[in-house]
Records
---
Amino acid sequence: MLAHDENERVTRVGPGTPMGKTMRQYWIPALLAWELPEPDCPPVRVRLLGEALVAFRNTQGRIGLLEEHCPHRQASLVLGRNEDCGLRCVYHGWKFDVAGECVDMMNEPEELSFAHKIRATAYPTVEAGGLVWAYLGPPDRRPPPPLFAWTQAPPSHRHVSKVIQESNWLQGLEGGIDTSHAPILHRVLDPDSTRPGFKTTDPFVRGKAPTLELDFTDYGYRYAGVRPLEGGDLHIRAYHFVLPFHQIRPARIGGSARGFSGASGHIWVPMDDETTMVYNWEHSTTEPLTDEDRLERRLGNGPLDVDQSTFRSKRNRENHYLQDRRVQKTETFTGIDGINVQDRAVQESMGPIVDRTRDHLGPADRAVIQARRLLLQATRTVEAGGIPPGIVPTYYTLRPAEAVVPHATDWRTLLVPEPLRPKVLEQV
Amino acid sequence: MLAHDENERVTRVGPGTPMGKTMRQYWIPALLAWELPEPDCPPVRVRLLGEALVAFRNTQGRIGLLEEHCPHRQASLVLGRNEDCGLRCVYHGWKFDVAGECVDMMNEPEELSFAHKIRATAYPTVEAGGLVWAYLGPPDRRPPPPLFAWTQAPPSHRHVSKVIQESNWLQGLEGGIDTSHAPILHRVLDPDSTRPGFKTTDPFVRGKAPTLELDFTDYGYRYAGVRPLEGGDLHIRAYHFVLPFHQIRPARIGGSARGFSGASGHIWVPMDDETTMVYNWEHSTTEPLTDEDRLERRLGNGPLDVDQSTFRSKRNRENHYLQDRRVQKTETFTGIDGINVQDRAVQESMGPIVDRTRDHLGPADRAVIQARRLLLQATRTVEAGGIPPGIVPTYYTLRPAEAVVPHATDWRTLLVPEPLRPKVLEQV
Amino acid sequence: MLAHDENERVTRVGPGTPMGKTMRQYWIPALLAWELPEPDCPPVRVRLLGEALVAFRNTQGRIGLLEEHCPHRQASLVLGRNEDCGLRCVYHGWKFDVAGECVDMMNEPEELSFAHKIRATAYPTVEAGGLVWAYLGPPDRRPPPPLFAWTQAPPSHRHVSKVIQESNWLQGLEGGIDTSHAPILHRVLDPDSTRPGFKTTDPFVRGKAPTLELDFTDYGYRYAGVRPLEGGDLHIRAYHFVLPFHQIRPARIGGSARGFSGASGHIWVPMDDETTMVYNWEHSTTEPLTDEDRLERRLGNGPLDVDQSTFRSKRNRENHYLQDRRVQKTETFTGIDGINVQDRAVQESMGPIVDRTRDHLGPADRAVIQARRLLLQATRTVEAGGIPPGIVPTYYTLRPAEAVVPHATDWRTLLVPEPLRPKVLEQV
């Protein structure tokens, strides 16, 4: 449970808000790289932390991310012409380069042009892992580019998609670092079912309700759900939370058939206070990902489930997520198809910004409680001029883990071999 | 005409408002009983007096009405599983019985469960007359269950439907206790027309504009429109208003062909300040109602006219109620089909909450004026700790009346024989 | 650039606002005359300067423009019956004549009728040029009817249409008196294209960026864009701005094939602060307009492009104006079809009420800057009890001009012969 003003502080991300200022210290995903497929392709509208922006790839392949509205008279540059190393407003022909400099003014006689005095707000970008990342903060605080293991993998071994969630970003993050819900919400009741989820024979489900163990690190925390199995073994699922909004979890790429062969995760990027762009990535550390893997059938995040121009899910609040009550009765816990559709359904059902003064949390919510605490701390660190966790890319070799192990095994040993172990600050 | 603050007081029904507190003294309809057709059927979302609720019928057939959002972390219980004597949240598996007690916590190890400390807000319910009624007020003020004559009739002789009206509830009620509009708004101009309404040959229409006579009672009031006919006879239509929002009117079940064979009425239940669920009932005191009667073709409230999952009318504001201007020219007064569709059209056209400071009322509005007065009085009675009219079920034998009678007949004699006559407080 | 309070002052038009009071000094278009095709035809909903109104044509052909809601209990008169010299509310049968007098009350016995005490707000109207014009201001300030040359032309030689723009009215006006954007936004890149717009061979486009010259007059101002052509000639386009929201521009009726044969213009009438009804007129001073002319294919304002019951454009914000990025690449500057669709696209993209504190204006914006200045002055004139420009119809013979002329020609000579020259107040 949070006090009302803490809930406001941790959820709202517009310019000038405490969390808004905090997120603007990080590189954050702005769009998928394929949305700008080639030089001089059409510009794309981007909404990020409550700001209206436009992205374009110029003639040389460089990416610009500008304020959406032309400084002249505020016409949208999304309607604009992407040509000859700049984005040109169609209203009066003002043209801007990727740095936001106005480089041409069609409406003024040459001798009267004041283009050199005009700048559009422009944010730096980098491409990594199939994403365009942006930095919206003060130039003198710009950190090194993001270095996640998955963003450095070859394209054959990684995949990323996105989908809009109609709620505040923190509801998404809290679901993603809450291992306790997964074998409940995503349970498959019928052993013969082919619908996605975790069957009752899965040790994840067979195990008793977990105890949660958590280590604070210099990027956020790592934690595990430890589930006792009959016979004394333990089922372990160990995750990482990298501030401000990254989850790294054990992957079951290709479904349980292919086993644990890598990592996956989500990034919950606020478009504005009540809308989130969820990025979904997978990283195979062994064989290449297949076309079938990239459909994300199990998760419900791929092109079969999400419109690839609007990034709206076909199963959504308007159509009650196509919940089938007969399926819910006998086959799956929710009657909703798609593991991440199930997540969005419950998270959106909490309202646009959930009122955390009404929570009743228990030991199973430890990871959620500590994430809120870390995020609130981060806002105060930034206010004090400090550097919050996760800015310095110490997290690039992080590995999640899922395994069944003998009683008394320390789950932390599953996270090695690691070239660099995270610096653990505190175990709770 | 009302002052602005009186209009606010009499219309708004959220928690803590004067009228909200007043309505929470009464049993009020929450949903149709058939929406929960059998034990362990899917739960149903209910919006009542601005509160978000969920209704379910448990394994034993008992009905629960809980706050919609799980006390754990506010996921909607409407997505939940109705199983084994409780409604279970799909997010972490917390389960609640019809009394709101948390009886299971799937996400916590048994030894850490704190289920016994958790309660969801739960409201008592009763089934009567094909409706589920709820009481949302303080437990120590809970009155005896509602006892309308129609709710006690056998199912063969009663019928009830519902439809959403996109306006404040009081606009509906005011239309329902305003007999003076009926032979105008609902008039059929063409004697050969088969469209529903009142033809010019009907004594209701043939009569001159009515004088209104009204007696205050311990449940609200009874009143009659008295219309002089040529030749000296009188046409009488006598209604009851039972607080806070019940109308009882003479029925012409099956159309004028079958004559006056019972009572009918509406209940205008606020979903929130700007949305009303209108319940429509009919009660035959003679022969059983037929399947055709239950289609409510004349009124436009039945399954042919109202979507039976959303309860939205097919003729609505968006499509201008399918008003046909050619039909209006020559055949019916409005060009809109369905007597209650006509009512909703004019009432919704007044705006979400009509501004009663702009009214210009006359003698024909006496019943409307006195209803507002009674409702305002009731809010003050409740504020003073008293019991407003209509709480104590003295109204269970009330009968409406419609008749043509000789000059100088007292309409009150038409309302007998009554086993118990209402206690008349004042005649105005 | 405007200060925030100036932007509020010049854009908002509701009752009591400075610009609202100013616009209420003028006759303004309320609807197209053909929307009320004959006596006793259906009434029409009108939204004007933030007021909800209803228009009807009575049995004698006279036009009434009343407040939308019946003074009795606020039911909408748009649902009403237009019959026997009055508009009758369907709820209780109150009837109003074109002057707003209540002339009948069906719900009250004759001896109790208080109709003579009831008046609905009614505004005077005149028909001119295929439009119904209304005056919403104080009766003692009512000016003479509007006398534009085009409104006085025979129907064979004039045409008028309308379309809704989803933005504040001033964004439309500012686009209309901004000649500098036209050869940019409306440019056709491909010489073989058949899409509407200005080709690069057109002197309007061939000319260099214009200098703007502007004369204040007693109706507003006249101004010209003067574009130097190779070889020393000048391309001239000269417009008039008649307060509060009229543009008069040179017409290319029938496309460039038929040449410059008259005048055309727009009128940006505020429905409310964020919605504008744009009226589009053409006036041929030579041959009659053809049916093909009246389709307005080039502009995109006609029945092929705009729904003639809702007056919503088929190409609109919801569908991104059907912008075709491949067409934009090689064929037209925007990839959007329809010259005025292009205007609406950029103007709507600026937001509902553009924030003019963010502007960066230059010499090419002179006409825009001076229009804002004149409009702000007009609000202060009205506050001081004075008469703003454009009220007294001195503008009835105004002619626009477009021509290629030798160097050093004064564009003002193109505007004669005029029976009456405008009184020029100041040249800037």
Note: Chain A touches chain C at residues 42, 69, 71-76, 78-79, 81, 90-93, 105-110, 112, 114, 117-118 (CB under 8 Å).
---
Amino acid sequence: MDIKTLADFCAKVGIAFPTAEIYGGFSGFYDWGPVGVEIKNNVKRVWWRTFVHQMDEIVGIDGSIVTHPDVWKASGHVEHFHDVVTRCKKCGRAYRADKLVLEVLGINVEGKPAEEIDTIIRKNNVRCPSCGGELGPVEYFNLMFETKVGPYGGVTSYLRPETAQLIFVNFPRVYLLARKRMPFGIAQMGKAYRNEISPRNFLFRLREFEQMEIEFFFDPKDDACPYYNEVKGKKVLGLTAEMQERGEKERPMRIADLVPEMPGREWMIFWIAKSVDFFVSVGVDPKRIRVREQLPDERAHYSMGTWDVEFRFDDLGWQEIEGIAHRGTYDLSRHQEFSGKSFEAVRPDGSKFIPMVIEPSWGVERTILAMLYSAYRKDEKRTYLRIHPQVAPYVVAVFPLVSKDGLPEIAREIYKEIRTEFRAFYDEKGNIGKRYRRQDEIGTPFCITVDYQTREDETVTIRDRDTMQQERVHKDEVVAWIREHVKNWRV
Amino acid sequence: MDIKTLADFCAKVGIAFPTAEIYGGFSGFYDWGPVGVEIKNNVKRVWWRTFVHQMDEIVGIDGSIVTHPDVWKASGHVEHFHDVVTRCKKCGRAYRADKLVLEVLGINVEGKPAEEIDTIIRKNNVRCPSCGGELGPVEYFNLMFETKVGPYGGVTSYLRPETAQLIFVNFPRVYLLARKRMPFGIAQMGKAYRNEISPRNFLFRLREFEQMEIEFFFDPKDDACPYYNEVKGKKVLGLTAEMQERGEKERPMRIADLVPEMPGREWMIFWIAKSVDFFVSVGVDPKRIRVREQLPDERAHYSMGTWDVEFRFDDLGWQEIEGIAHRGTYDLSRHQEFSGKSFEAVRPDGSKFIPMVIEPSWGVERTILAMLYSAYRKDEKRTYLRIHPQVAPYVVAVFPLVSKDGLPEIAREIYKEIRTEFRAFYDEKGNIGKRYRRQDEIGTPFCITVDYQTREDETVTIRDRDTMQQERVHKDEVVAWIREHVKNWRV
């Protein structure tokens, strides 16, 4: 399986494809088709239910995408959120200068100043990999998209490069609304934007993408996690910073052994465990998941420690699909400083403190990529998606065997009953084998067929997507049968 | 009830408030709080279920927000999507020139060229209403937000001013994915952006807002609607263009009498009926709804006829909350012309045609405003939101009467069972009366209280938000009780 095959497959069945294809597409921007939009909605719904509706400590918000510019001054994004770029003087192609130096010279210059990278490029006479031309000066390029708000020039604003800051700036209000509970978390799902130099790998590196984030606030002096005993023994494929420095590979280990002593350690372990559970619950192959501690020089400017949940793509190798960052008190302190408002919380004894925060941050598109990599099956007979019913675009498809002799009428009646409870699809066109294949491709777990026997004994066949086995069930028991099978479904 | 009272209420209970308040807010941009995000998600979910999952003819997509610039050249937005503005030379305040002329002189110049409006302003010596200063020249101001995509200057792109065009550009692909069905519709929910000169009235006129749109395609030569008999007799408060020209007011009339002979007339009537039904299903007061035909000079450049669903706000009067536009073949024809690709559909006999399209387009925020106006109740004792359980932030709240004597343990057990099926809230802090009031304010239909009697006979009280009546129910029957009451709930 490779990303190109998956991209072609996704375009073909209506999951996702480049936006504005009729105008040649637009690099880094994708549209979701009829099948993809259902999958995406399902993943977001399951995430929200898991972390907001099923967790007492967490409430949601939904912040603006175009945002007051001061937010990004305080957060450090105006100052820090840039890449180093260089452009070929001959062919005009632009490159990330640090990536180029790594690829051509094998030198890691991530995070180094532009001048230093420029010097390395001159000294080693690095040329344009595409045409051999001379490279222009290495410059900073801020990754935030700008837009002007209001008439007559307007105010320079930014499309949010992360959803997180909308949570931080709302902390004082939401903390009061949550009646000063501590620890507590704020969750948000929504679009974010980064003006990447070279978007690539289908949905993996986009300019417009969607995040699902939680900012989980706690008192560093009272940081015990009540669920710690449930999660501390859990095992994952783990890789600490130390192991990486020693050149070791990931190995099965207790999550608790991944995180050193630090404020909020128990909560960090809890969030790693919950994160892995979430991925598995939407059908990501647990054998392809590892948790890797970021090396100190990889970490963002705000981070006291970051653990990435990574997925092993056959062709791209291990890649981050979620980051869990310990942001300390950085963001709340900065907003307190820049706004002059209080970002403090209050302890039962009346003393005040700025909460620390742990941030589990998922990419929606990357989660779906990992799901699809895990689910895609192709053999001589067919292609099918072995995805979990709770995220499948449709749970059930209903067919009359033929579109005559009263079969469509019976099938439609069953279909109408089913769709009051489950996402369902009705199809009477074409031969039955093709109709099954089409549902296999988009991952519909169950196909119900009304045939001539239905007219005699009121039974229908239910076909299982994965085994292709069929069983006969009385039509009045179909809904209960589906309910039961969805509930007990295991990857 | 006025919009200011509602805005204050919404901020107080955590529905919505200005974004980045700590930095002074940002005109036209709002954030949704813990209560509001649940309401918004619920409205969107009900809409999607109603129009996508429950209608065979409709599939969904989710398009990019930052979009290829050619899309907006073809759509006419680069050329036409502007306001006329003028700015006071003294105080610098900007105005929509046409609104200013209407307010000051009572002359309707909507859609007139900038030069003509400029002449009227000079001739009548219209001055700045704020400081009396001289007004600058009347100019065009395009309402699309621009942003540059890519490094080194980048490509000028636009934040979509409507979701619709993302549907139109994807028509050829989605039509094939839907196996050339006709009529058929494509639905989409998502953000859109308009750089309004003066955003105002809380969530009513925003710069960043959310749309729920359907583009419903049909063959003008085969435009019968199979559901027409079900809807043609339905009545609404209606107001035709003719009635407006005669100075008449809205009156109860058959929807069928609102729409003159035109291609797709039956579908237009169907969409008006479905639209009104949707509003009522989420709790908008039907007595405050009317359907008004737009006058020819109000219509957008693409429209062959537009009917607005309007809501009567106490203070703002009748205002559009949904527009249903007949866009003819305008958009598909333009994209065919600009892209050189085919946007034709095929009839069973093999002949080809460009489909016509009817576009029902809802504003998410306006729908919620109308819901909240309809639901808000205030008397001497309390403020409560009489909203439908299917859109209420929580369906159930669970309380122990006191947080001791084993009552919290029983209450939490009940709460955990309920929340597997319903959005539920648990609260054991503060006195019971205050806890009820707090749930009343955010519209929770049912509050369940565990008291001392529960320990004896295993019954709990269930309190109805609207009547404040309580009844005792056995704790094992609570889930069934809620299921039944939610199902039968009527405004």
Note: Chain B has three domains: 3-66+160-376, 82-142, 379-487.
---
Amino acid sequence: MREYSCVHRGRAEPLDLHLAMFLPTLLNQSSPEQMEKFFIPAWNLDIIGTYAQTEMGHGTHLRGLETTATYDPATQEFVLNSPTITSIKWWPGGLGKTSNHAIVLAQLHTQGKCHGLHAFIVPLRSMNTHIPLPGVVVGDIGPKFGFDEVDNGYLKLENVRIPREHMLMKYAKVEADGTYVKPPSAKLTYGTMVFIRSMIVGEASSALAKSCTIAIRYSSVRHQSEIRPGEPEPQIMDYQTQQYKLFPLLATAYAYKFVGQYMNQVYHRITGDISQGDFSELPELHALSAGLKAFTTWTASEGIEVCRMACGGHGYSRCSALPDIYVNFVATCTYEGENTVMMLQTARFLIKSYQQASAGHQLSGIVSYLNESERRLQPQSVSSRPTVVNVNDLASLVEAYKLRAAKLVEVAAKSIHQELQKRVSQEDAWNNSAIDLVRASNAHCHYVVVKLFAAKLGEIGDTGVHSVLSTLALLYALQGIQQHSGDFLQTGLLSVPQLSQVSQRLKELLAQLRPNAVALVDAFDYCDEMLNSVLGRYDGNVYEHMFEWARRSPLNKTEVHESYHKYLKPLQAKL
Amino acid sequence: MREYSCVHRGRAEPLDLHLAMFLPTLLNQSSPEQMEKFFIPAWNLDIIGTYAQTEMGHGTHLRGLETTATYDPATQEFVLNSPTITSIKWWPGGLGKTSNHAIVLAQLHTQGKCHGLHAFIVPLRSMNTHIPLPGVVVGDIGPKFGFDEVDNGYLKLENVRIPREHMLMKYAKVEADGTYVKPPSAKLTYGTMVFIRSMIVGEASSALAKSCTIAIRYSSVRHQSEIRPGEPEPQIMDYQTQQYKLFPLLATAYAYKFVGQYMNQVYHRITGDISQGDFSELPELHALSAGLKAFTTWTASEGIEVCRMACGGHGYSRCSALPDIYVNFVATCTYEGENTVMMLQTARFLIKSYQQASAGHQLSGIVSYLNESERRLQPQSVSSRPTVVNVNDLASLVEAYKLRAAKLVEVAAKSIHQELQKRVSQEDAWNNSAIDLVRASNAHCHYVVVKLFAAKLGEIGDTGVHSVLSTLALLYALQGIQQHSGDFLQTGLLSVPQLSQVSQRLKELLAQLRPNAVALVDAFDYCDEMLNSVLGRYDGNVYEHMFEWARRSPLNKTEVHESYHKYLKPLQAKL
């Protein structure tokens, strides 16, 4: 297992779900007997498993999943079925060709009643021949945007019988006679989701940090055009537009690193609380993790493409590594909870909190700013309130982001209220306000990121490091204001002259960061082997290695490619 | 040749540059003797050629190209060389393995002087064996983001001698003794660039139209979650967030179609003028085409990814066709003039026009709005001027976009002015204002698109078509205002209450378009064969065909994949 993790560093592989989902799920949800029977062989790679939840017709909405597991007390077995085409399991990594087992999520039916989704261990292939077992229709789902090395699969179950002991029974149980025993708390599964999403935020940081490393190093190697006539072509890093593309992304990569660290810390703290039966902080963390997962993966995905295009034509070559970073990372916008759905989950928590505050409850935690919103954000006060933001002071900017979030939560809450006044249902009012809700969640997450970045500075003792990270934090905060200037103007948080100050200050910060840019990406500490990018080489020796890389292209195995003999020559002869 | 164009409809191929660049360049720049010698064999596909301009170290900045063609009067030959590693020709499509000739752009040296870039016909491979000729080092540059079917290549020339008659001599000439004869006008090549960029704007429309067709059809097939409890899962098209993602893109696809048509018309009109020696409109069209190429390719690329992600997990499968549309289209942001460079070219024209207007010259054409800017956009007038925009009236919105462009051109011009006052050089002042310049070009292009969309409505007689296209145009204009609300607030063109009206009106327009959405993509008239997308099928029979598509996956050729015997089984045996 140790050796395994080094095969392709940082790339997805067929055994990923075995390691990241199958083993942990066994560990968390097995009874002691199941640990013995399944976990040990799985640890030894005799059993290779995956986690089969998503179906062809059903993703985010778990209640919509159609696969059934019906208990037959006569034989003490569950009978698993894919009753429709849309119920075929679809997407699980390693399912197509690699796994011989899967944890299958299915609607549990016993004694004539459906008890919702439960997890079952289903053997898929013969342990001797690897041939699919009777009733198991399994295969690869075909080529994708990325994840070339992973056999994402489909699984159709046709009256597949498994012993009763194959249901994961640590929490819920089905007894021999078919009696269903409920799990103690539904909130237990929240924790895993929070953990996975905090991991994804960390990945957003890494993917962006790698992309910045490649683009910023290459921008210091590449010379192009001229700024001053007659002088040699400057490094493209000297163009203001190039700095404006890359430095805010560099700041973002640092910001997300701190956000990921924070989420991980909070997760571990709260896990401790949970084990002592205290679930009080879980809803907030769950809501926050959903929104931050969406917020960071969207911006990081866009950022990777900006880095790629900032490398010009060579960014389009796979020798840059950027195409691969993009196609593999962008999937995070869709998996583990589609991003828009995630934003709406966060919004649900924000609106609930807003309503509690409006009803006079004192909120605590990160949404406590909503306590003040009723008082401070009266419509008439917008234009009359003196603008207090200082665009050179990070604490003041954190405050501005907070008030923006408060205002946008209020706008969304008011939209729902207005819709309800038109006598539409609660659900339609929600859907008719969804644009505003996503906007509010975005503003909330943006506030959290700026706040955590500012908080991180307080932990840094080294004055040099503190100074350069402060510049990055200010750049991050100001660029967000420029990009969303409408929000800040609309809420009266900034004046028009202040916005011009922001523009001016941003340009100064870019120039200020220029000499440190390469050092700031070197500090991410990705070795060449990890980056696997000709453009991002530490030694800057790009062009020679690009030529070398090209000469190894599969098409160059022969001087005259077979297509000449097969197609071109016959075509020329015919004409 | 006729058959050829049907092999892979709409996909890039090794012979593309032969058809799109090699033949047209021969046609436009050959002497009559060269037509005879090269064009006829090329037309018959005996000669297969490509167009080799870009070098490993040099793209946009043509003066930086390093390949040399030195005339040797003793033998009446040109000697071609790649003097450095960065001078190796890089990227030309079909160069790697397919072409036996190339038009090579090289710095012409004769009688001890360099006369800049000229085009030379260079034989690369034996006409009998297809083996590279002596001194020609040629091959494929390796895998890329997309364009899998194209052998983009490299070419290193080592003292390759070609007869004098291989220089394309319709305009510039080198006589037998080495005397250089200048071409009549440098502006002649502008026309081709304008033409190619207007084609790219058309492609932006097509790529986005295809993506919208796939995403909107699939959103009517896919059911997910619930809006109202107890009711069946709704079509995902019924979610406001989904409409907000897709309908503005649908409007954009229509807008760009009209912009592409307009550019093509203007190009043909101006080509007529040029042939009569009238170049007066060319600079404006050249500048406009650069900016619109960048503006439309950036937004369309982002839009394709929005469409893809709007299809959830299945959008990530290549069965959706969206990954392929993206990787092949996004290259347009980089080729034929990198987008930021394009935006700065447009900005150069805008600033020049602004300065002319400031100096009292009366501008004509599309920049005539800059005539008014000095008078109307005094800083003190911003807050005092009554806001006249009517958010329900397209003509009024066109006016608002115009004033925004005028304001942002002014901001950029003032930034340059301020920099100059700090006593920096003209060139540094330009570079230190580049962010503002790109912003001004964006606003200018956005204005042109809205204006052309509005103008198109005037040509439509059918009331039903006029009505639905008016809705799309209004949606396009209002969504742009919402996205750039900071600009409109900052310039005092809109008030805060009007911005809320814009939000409200946008939501109404989405609901209004919902019943027509599928008809509006059907109207693009892409047959299933052209879309090649399981999700975008006209009959909506998505899931069955997805299963069928998956079963044909290369990995499914055998039930037990060779990787089991090769890796898994030995690994299990070892542990």
Note: Confidence is low (pLDDT under 50) at residues 1-7, 379-384 of chain A.
